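YM 10:42: Nucleoside 2-deoxyribosyltransferase sequence, as discussed on the call
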Amino acid sequence: MKVYFTAPPRTLRDFGPQIKKIYKLIGGFGYELVSDFIVEVNPDKYYRNSQTEMVKYYQETMAAIKKADIVVVEVTVPSMAMGYVIDKAKDLSKAVVILHLKARQPLFFSAIADDRIQMVEYTLPTLEKVLKPALEYAADKIDTRFNFFISPKIGNYLSWIAKKRKLPRAVYLRRLIEADMEKNSEYSKSE
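YM 10:58: structure's back
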């Protein structure tokens, strides 16, 4: 399972040990980290980057979010960029873990009502204890990709539905299955 972990680079100035420990723990739990930017960046140099370098960083960040199954964001130090990262991950239906140090809860994020997004408070001594279950919960929230072959006739129908109802084909199929699940009393009893 792939994880993208990030934080504002200036976080390293005051909370470097926390950032490095989070990164190390995620890898230690067996997750594949898709970027080492946050543990390799020099914050002072980063904030003096040229426009070209910032465009490159933005593109790498977007690619990392897309590649990851889970996005972990440390927000102890407030940052509009981290809000954007969280929103982008949410738009891409990624599971998101928002970490913050005790007594530094970001109020804005606490208003997000989405079961794929968790806000997790930690201290350095409790980090391992709270991070592992948060990642496990996030892993349970990841959609499963399901591919199958269909006839051209069904493909044409799904394309027609998509155009007529302005609804992605996958959403249409998901709704059909969910409706059938609700009606199926035998399945309801097995849950």
